[in-house]
TrEMBL record:
It comes from Moritella marina ATCC 15381. One of its GO terms (biological process) is lipopolysaccharide core region biosynthetic process. This is Glycosyltransferase family 9 protein. One of its GO terms (cellular component) is cytosol. Gene3D superfamilies: Glycogen Phosphorylase B.
Length: 333
């Protein structure tokens, strides 16, 4: 096929999915080094990846309502791309895609093109049987001629970010990071479970740190875990920018997290992750390079479900046992 000269990526959120999308963007850059790439992305997500080399970023702030669409249209006025990769099925993303002129408009195959996404595209990626989200994204690159290859990531970190991370971590022990909070509280594991694992890893000569965002709920969760633990825990919740958090994860030795962005951030920097899953299928949304290192009860709750179905209920994560998590961690001790 004729190499595209201009490519627009449409993927606003969330952090984990944007991490997957980075591997797609950089695969395209390696295969089409002369193509100009523009990425329409969310405001928060741009704080993590908005300095990727060779990519123009255009912020779409969904919190501004109709103004966000108007601003996007103005920013892209009089521009036409050879290719649009419409990688988000939410209706608001499809509405935003109307602000983007492109000759080829690639979307998901009709089975996965939920919320009417198929109405906004003129090309579909090939159907896939039970793909991980990252593999689903990578099919967009394949559709425009990029050879399939293992994912790679290069998200820039400054010297200052790396030095700051070094200052927060142990230089005499290995470093174990707990990122306990998911975007929804029901996807968090128990505070008692996290505290017991903190004790266990301390006994195995790891410094234990807790990381998370600045919200009151995340700070409260960290406080409860630390109060239950009987060992020192380094509390970094609310103390890091997204770049500093990425640096922490990069220089750590092992991460424990539920279905949340830092699990996928860890994957981008090569740090092994033990994931905790009850609501989503870990084969679809788990940490890509550590799908065999997941403590999960999803299949216990939904043994015969369709691939993308979420399990529902406020206490599903409680079925993950401490011994199950320890068993996953032992591989890395």
């Amino acid at each position: 096929m004729t190499p595209p000269q201009s490519i627009c990526i449409l993927r606003f959120s969330a952090i984990g999915d944007v991490c997957h999308a980075v591997s797609v963007v950089q695969a395209i850059q390696r295969h089409y080094p002369n193509a100009k790439i523009t990425w329409v992305i969310g405001k928060i997500e741009a704080m993590l990846v908005g300095d990727l080399a060779g990519v123009e970023f255009i912020i779409f702030d969904k919190k501004t309502g109709l103004k966000g669409y108007s601003d996007l249209r103005k920013k892209l006025n009089n521009r036409q791309f050879d290719v649009l990769l419409h990688m988000q099925v939410a209706l608001r993303a499809s509405v935003a895609s109307l602000c983007i002129k492109a000759k080829q408009r690639w979307g998901f195959d009709k089975v996965r093109a939920k919320e009417g996404q198929w109405l906004f595209t003129n090309n579909k990626i090939k159907p896939q049987s039970q793909p991980h989200v990252l593999d689903g994204f990578m099919a967009f690159a394949e559709a425009i001629g990029v050879p399939v290859a293992p994912p790679q990531w290069d998200i820039p970190l400054t010297t200052q970010d790396n030095l700051w991370a070094h200052s927060q971590l142990s230089h005499t022990k290995k470093n174990f990071i707990i990122c306990p909070s998911a975007s929804k509280a029901e996807r968090n594991w128990s505070t008692a479970g996290y505290a017991e694992i903190a004790n266990y890893m301390h006994e195995n000569n790891y410094q234990v740190s807790i990381c998370g965002g600045p919200t009151d709920s995340e700070k409260q969760l960290a406080k409860e875990i630390i109060e239950l633990a009987t060992v020192p825990v380094n509390n970094l919740v609310g103390e890091t920018s997204l770049k500093q958090l990425l640096a922490i994860l990069k220089h750590a030795d092992l991460v424990l997290a539920p279905d949340t962005g830092p699990a996928h951030m860890s994957t981008t920097v090569g740090t092994p992750v033990v994931g905790l899953y009850a609501h989503s299928n870990p084969g679809r949304t788990g940490p890509y390079n550590n799908l065999d290192d997941v403590a999960e009860v999803y299949h216990q709750h939904l043994p015969d479900s369709e691939w993308g179905v979420r399990a529902k209920g406020p206490d599903l994560m409680d079925a993950i046992s401490i011994e199950q998590v320890k068993s996953c961690l032992q591989k890395w001790l």
